[in-house]
Amino acid sequence: MQNPLSTRLLAIDALRGLVIIIMLLDHVRETFYLHYQVPDPMQIESTDPALFFSRSLAHLCAPVFVLLTGISAYLYQSKVQSLKMTREFLIKRGLFLIFLELVIINFAWTGQFPPEIVYLQVIWAIGISMLALAALIHLPILWIWIISVLIIAFHNVFDQLYPNSAFLQALWNILHQRGWIEFSEHFKVRTSYPVLPWIGVIGFGYALGKTVFSRPDNFAVKMQFLYRVGLGCIGLFLILRMLNLYGDQPREVFSNFSLTLMSFFNLTKYPPSLDFILWNCGLGLILLYALQRVENRSWIKPLVIFGSVPMFFYIVHLFVLKLLYVFAVFIFGINHGSYFGVDHVSTLWWISLILCLALYPLMLSFSRFKHQNKHIAILKYL
After folding, report:
1. Residue 9: is its pLDDT beyond 80?
2. DSSP single-letter state for residue 188
3. 182 phi and psi angles, rounded to 5 deg
4. How far is CA 208 from CA 69, 273, 275, 375, in A?
5. Other C-beta atoms within 10 Å of 11: how many?
6. Between helices 4-32 and 274-293, what is the axis angle to 10°?
7. Strand 187-190 to strand 117-119: parallel, antiparallel, or no bridges (unpaired)?
8. 59-115: per-residue pLDDT in tens?
9. Which residues form the Heparan-alpha-glucosaminide N-acetyltransferase catalytic domain (predicted)?
């Protein structure tokens, strides 16, 4: 009989692999569709529905990554049976991710070293969230639940808070408000991913993992519980969105049904609103349940492979996209203002599919290398 822990990890890797592929699509958009940039939230009346769908689909990525990081932290703790080792792992990995964001990933995006602008994006947010979780895991589980739910549910209350001093404004930009921190005329930081809501999400994932996987129920019952939590998140999202009073920017009703539907799902990501978190974390938990039920299907393997080497894929695909863009400009030149870009959203999907097929052999080889060399400490972080 298969070990429940290995089954659990297989489903988590498969889900992580799925959102990695979706993330690739969004980064292809950010590379070859820069001439049609979308704000947050999107301007739906001037946004092509295909672009709106592609961008909204990509919203699933960050919440699922952070949620799974919290769940995986508890699974690691249950494996090593040590709160101290778990705390040390979270601190080391969190600092490693912050280093990657500041040095490697920023260079992959901008091509500048030393940089004039540093973008604090999703890897930074996950790293900071892991450091915060390292502090939280010593608390009773009830307190972790309370803190996480309070952050997720009520951080939108402070959307219009603007501190008076430059120091407090910079701190608030890191925690909750997307903005700029200027250190000098030639160096500034963009807080693309304010971290406070993500700390709530990672705490929610850890608390959920500990609540579910420490229960004496069989594995199927545990997965059913996660499924019901996912449905509950979706249900609460639908209620809040219908009430249109709190949780995100108000939805609008148009004479055109498709625009009304787009407005309903036009959610704020920076920082992630309550509605954004409920919808995407709910979908993530439902997908986790669904993938676990089909774990023996052969088509799951590529998802598991991609999901088993998430950071390696993240770094590699950014440099591949940068090289492809430089090559495209060299061959075709600039064709959309100051950018080279493709003309149709469908082309972005085709590029993403080709890149998935091209990168899979490398990911498979690295996954095998990682599995065969578990004694190499740094491989745990890739």
Report:
1. no
2. E
3. -100, 120
4. 11, 20, 19, 30
5. 26
6. 130
7. parallel
8. 999 999 999 999 999 999 998 888 999 999 999 999 999 999 999 999 998 888 888
9. 8-220
Global pTM exceeds 0.70:
yes
Length of the chain: 382
The answer, yes or no, to whether residue 5 has pLDDT greater than 80, is: no
Distances from the Cα of 323 to the Cα of 45, 56, 311, angstroms: 34, 26, 19
Here the contacts of 230-235 (C-beta below 8 Å, separation 24 or greater) are: 230/281, 230/282, 230/283, 230/284, 230/285, 230/286, 230/288, 230/289, 231/282, 231/286, 232/282, 233/278, 233/279, 233/281, 233/282, 233/285, 234/278, 234/279, 234/282, 234/283, 234/286
Does 2 score more than 50 pLDDT?
no
Q: 3-class SS at 245? A: coil
| Alpha carbon distance, N-terminus to C-terminus of the chain | 29
Higher pLDDT, residue 140 or 160? 140
User: Do 127 and 94 touch, CB atoms closer than 8 A?
Assistant: yes
Estimate the crossing angle of helix 61-80 against helix 122-136, to 10 degrees: 40
Cα 315 to Cα 381: distance, rounded to the nearest angstrom: 12
CA dist 372 → 12, 375, 380 (Å): 20, 9, 12
